[in-house]
Amino acid sequence: MSPASSPSNVNRFHLTRILVVWLVLSLILTPLVYFVWGPNMPPGDMANNAKDQQFDNTVLSTVATPVVLFIWVYLGYALIFFRRKDASDEEDGPPIKGHLGFQVGWVGLTTVIVLSLFVFGTYELVGPNGAGTGSGSSPIWTPAGYSGVAKYNKLFQVQVIGQQWRWTFRYPAYQGVETTQLVIPEGVQIQFNTTSLDVIHSFWAYELGVKADAVPGVNNIAFAVAERPGTFQIRCAELCGPLHGAMSSVGVVVSPTAFNTWIAGQLVLHGEVIPLLPPYAPTYLPQSDGGLYDPGQDPLGPDLTLPSPAP
Amino acid sequence: MSQLDDTAGDQLVVDSDAHERKSVLGSYWTASRLFVAASTMLFGAGAFSYFYLHSLDNNSLWRAPGQRPSSFLSVPVLLLTVVASLVYVVVARRAERPGADGNDFRVAAGVASVMLVVAAMIQFWGMRRLGFFPGSSGYASVYVAVMPLFGVWLLIGAYWAEVLLARSLRVRWVLAPVGENADSHEAAAFAGSLNGSRLFIGFLGLLSVVLYVMFSVLK
Amino acid sequence: MTIETPVGEKVSGGGTPDEPVTTSLPSYWTRPNVLTGVVGAVIGYSIGHWFGNYVAADNQQFQGNGQNDFALTLGYLVATLGWLAGLGVLNYPIAKMLGHRPDETFEEDPRLSRYFRYTLDHKVVGLQYLSAMLFYFFAAGLFALVIRSELLSPTSHLLAPDTYVEVVGEHGTLMMMMMTSAILGPFGNYLIPLMIGSRRMAFPRLEALSFWLTPAAFVVLLSGLFVGGFPTGWTGYAPLAVQAKEGQDAYLVAFGLMACSMILAGFNIVATVINYRAPGMTWTRVPLFVWGILVTSMLMVLAAPILVGATYMALMDRTVQTALFDVNHGGSSYLWQNLFWFFGHPEVYILALPGFGIALELLPVFARKPAFAYRTAVAGMVGVGVLSFFVWQHHLFDSGINPDMRPVVMFTTELISIPTGIIYLVAVGTLWRAKLRMTVPMLFIFGMLFNFLIGGISGVFLSDVPADGVAHGSFFVMAHFHYTIMGGYIFAFFAGIYYWLPKMMGRRLNDRLGKVHFWLMFVAFNSTFLPLFAVGQLGMPRRVFEYAQRLQALNVWVSISAFALGLSMLVFVFNFLKSTIIDDKVELVENPWQSRGLEWTVPSPPPRLNFPSIPIVTSGPYEYGTGAGPMAVLSVPASAGAEGEVLL
Questions:
Q1: For A105-158, how does the pLDDT look when each residue is reduced to its tens digit (9 = 90+)?
Q2: Segment 79-108 of chain B within 8 Å of chain C by CB
Q3: Which residues of C touch A236 (CB under 8 A)?
Q4: CA–CA–CA angle C452, A237, C226 (5° rounding)
Q5: I need a labelling partner for A285 at 20 to 30 A (CA). Which of A97, B113, C283, C340 fits?
Q6: Distance from A307 to chain B by nearest Cα, in Å?
Q7: Which domain holds residue A248?
Q8: pTM to 2 decimals?
C-alpha cells in the first residue's frame, strides 16, 4: 500500500476536506446569525424580557449553527464521496468498529456545549427575574421592591384574569377596577398576577416576553419592564376550549402620565360597577371570598363540617 | 436457500428441550418482575397524588380532621390480604423445592384465592358506605380513586392463585414432575408461573400495608 | 397436546413445518374471528351502557353529566371485553380457571383469513399490526389535512370552532396514541424472534392481545366525535377535561386501552429478548434494532401505567365526582399535568427510540461497514431511555409550579442531548469511508437524520427556560415535535417498510415509485414544517383557528405543502398496493440488500417456526468487511426425532 493511500492518510484526506468546508461555512454563517439575524429575532426588544428572550434565541442559534452545519456538511460529503462506484461494486467498506479518540472527543464536546448552555440558560433565567415566565405564587428571582406580603410590595401590580374566552385585567392599586384592555406604563417594573376563573389558560404577551399560565386557584406571577410605548399582542397559549383561538387581545404601553389619565378615565367609566365586584384577591374561587362556600349547601361536600378556611 | 450452515459437528448440538425450558422459566421470571414494576408505577401514581395534594392543601380541603374509612372496612381488607399473601408466599416457596407435597400448595392456593376475593368484595362493598363523599376533600378523592383499583388487583392475584390450583388439580404431576414430565414445557411453564405468582401475591400483601398506612394511619 | 417436529418426522394430526396440514383446519366462519368480535363489542356496549345507567340512575353521586359519562365509560369498557371475547382472546384465560391446558399448538394456516382472527404466530401479528398502523396513520393524517384547510384563512371559515378543536384533538390523539406501536408493533413483533434466533415469542397471547386492543382504542376514540368530541387536545388537561362533554370519556378510555396495549407488548418483548436469545447471541451481538425496541419496551412498561392511573383518575372525576383535579375541593390542576407528563415525556422517547434503532440497523447494511461504536450506541439508547424519566417538568415551565425546580429540569433536559448526540456519533462513524448504496431505505434514513437534527436542535431551544417562554404553546413546539416524530420516527418507519417488506411478504416495493415517494415526502415535509418554526416564533399559539393576518401567507404555504405531503402518501399507498396485491409475484432475490442479519438467513416469508432448528450464533450482525462467516449455524437436535415442544 503506497503511503498516499494508507488508512491514516486517507482519513486525514477526508477529514481535512470536511473540516475545511465546515469551517468556511461556519465562519461565514455564524457571525451572520449572531450579528445580522440576532437583533431581528423574535420577540423583539420592546421589553426587558423580550430583549432577554431575543438574546437567548440569538445565542442558541449561534451555537446551533456550526453543529447543524457540521452534520449537513458531513452527510453531504458522505453522499458524494463515500458512495460505491456503481451498482456492480460489491465491495465492503473498511471494518472500522470504533475510534476511542473520536468518541471521547464527540461526547466530551457535546457535554461541554450542553453544560455551557445550561449555565447560560440559568443565568438568563435568574438575572432577568424569571425572564417573563410564570413563576408561581412564590417566585424566587424577583426584582427589587418585590415582597410576598402585599403591603410591602412596591411593584406595579396588574392582575390578569383568564376565563373562557376572554382576558380581563384588574388594577389593585386603583380600587381593583376591572378593565377589558391591558394598559401599562412604560419604564416601570410590572408584576403580572395571572389567574383563571375556570380552566387553564396561558397569558402570552408576545412583545413583552411574558408567558404565564392562568390556572384556577393559583396566582402565577411574572415580571416585565416595558421599555418603550407601543402595542403588544396578547394571546392565549393553552387550549382552553372551543374558542381558545379567539381569545386574543391587544395591550398598550404608554407613558406614565398617559397611564394616569387612562386609569382615571376607567375609574369613572366603571364607577358604578367597582363596588359590586368581588374584592380584589390573588385567586377567585368560592372559598377565597372567605365564607361563601357553605359545606352544608354543597351536595358533594363533606358530611363533616370543615373548619373555616384561612382568610 | 439458507445461509445457515447445516453441516454441523458435535459441538453444535443443542439440547433444545433444555433451551426451551430455560427460556420459559426465564420469561415468567422476567414478566412477573415487570408486572410488579408496572403495578408499582400505577399505585405509585396514586401515592404521588396523595402526597402531592397533601402538600398543596388547596383551600385547606386536603382532609377533614379525622376523615378516614371505617375500621370495619380497612382492617379486614388489610388482614385478609396480608394473611393470604403470607400463607401463599410461604407455602409456594416450599412447593418450588423438589419433593414437596403438592397438597400443601393446593390448600394454600385455594385459601389464599378465597381470602383475596373476600377482601376485594369487602373493599367494593365498603365504597358505598364510606361516610364521606368522594369529592369532599383531596384525601377522599384519592381514596375513592385508589382503593377500587386495589380491589381489582386483589382479584388478579386471586385469579392467578386459582389458575395454578386448577392446573395442579387437573394435571396432578405438574407440581412435582418426574422423568420425562420433568423436561416438559408444561412443567417449566407451571414452575415459572408459580414463582411469578409468589412474587405478585407477596407484592399485594406489601401494597395493602402501604395503602393502610397511607389512608388509615397517617394523619 | 401434540409435539411439533421440524424436519422430516410426521406426527398424526399436527403436521410439520414442511408439510402443513390444511385439510383439517376448521373453517374461518366457525371459529372466533373479527366479525364475532364486532358482535361481541356491540353486545358488550349495550350491556355496559345499560348497567351504567342502572347503577347511576338514582344515585346522587352521579349528578349532572356524571350519569351519561358513567354509562358511556362502562359501555366502552364492556364493549372492549365483548370485542375480546368475540375474538376468542378470553377463551384460554377462562379455560385456565378450570385447569385446562392450552390446546393451540403448532398450526400452519396458509389461508389469508388468518390475518382476520386472533392468532399466536408472531409473524401474522406483525403483519396485522403493519396494516393496522398504516390505516391509523392515514386516518389521522386526513384529520391533519382538515386542520390545514381551516388554517388557510386567519378567521374561522370551514369549521365551527368546537368542531375545529375536536378535529385537532382527534388528529393529535390518534397519532400520539396509535403511533407509539407503529414500529414496535409491526417490526418488533415480526422481527425480534428472527433477529435473536428464536422460533417464537415468549408470550404470544399477550402479543396478540396487545394488537387486538388497538382497533378497540381506535374505534372508541373516533366514536367520541359522535358524542360531542373532546376539546382538550391530546394532552387532556384538567379542569377542561372534567368540564368537557361526553366525548372526553372516549378520549380517556381509548388512551387507557392503548396504554394497556403498550404495557402488554412491553412485557412480551422484554421477556423474549432477555430469555429467548439463541445460544451464542451474547448481549454484544444483539442487533441495535433489538436494543432500541428493548429500551422502548422498558419505557412502555414503566411509563404507561402512570397514564392508566391518570386517565382512570380523570374518569373518576367525571363520573363519581371525585375532586382530584378540582382546586375547589382539595384537588389540583397540576396533578394531571404532572401525572400526564411523567408518562408523556417517556412517551415521546417511546416514539423516538425505535426510529434510532432502525437507523442504526440499516446504516451498516447500506454502508457495508460495521456499526461504529456498537457499545456506545447501546449506551446512548439506554441513556436516552433512563434520562427520559427525569425531564417531564419541562412541559410545565410556565405553569406556575415551584420555580426552583426549573433549572434542575433545564439541566436534565439539556443533558438528554448527549445520548441523543451519540446516535449521530454512531451514524457519522458508520458512514465514514463507507461504500454507500443509496437504496430507497437508505434515502429515508438520510432524510431521518436530516430531519431529526432540526427537531432535536429546536428541542434545545425549548429546554432553555427563557427561550421556552417564547416558544411554549406556540407553533414552534408543533414544528419541533413534528420534526422529531414525523421527520425522524415516521421516516424511519417507511425505511423499515421498504427494507423489510421483502422479508415479510416476499415482495419488493417498486424502486422508482419509492424514490418518488421519498423525494416528494421529504421536500413536502420540510416545506410544511420548517415555516412553522417561524410562525410560532412570530406569535401564533397552538390549536387555534384564528391567527394574525400577517401570518396568512406562511400558513397558506404550509397548508399547500401539507397537501403535497398527503399526495406523497398516496404515492406510497399506490406503490404498496401495486407491489403486494396487484402485480404478479416476481421471483425474488432472497436477500436483496445482502444483509448479514439473522432474519435474512431464512426464507421470505419465513416458515411457521422460523428456523429449522435452533441456530447457534457465531458472529455479530455488523461484521461487514471483516471476513467473518455467516452470523449463525444451525444446531443439531440433541435427540433425533422429538425436536422439542413449542407449546403456545
A1: 999 999 999 999 999 999 998 887 888 899 998 898 999 889 888 888 899 999
A2: none
A3: 541
A4: 85
A5: C340
A6: 8
A7: 150-284
A8: 0.93
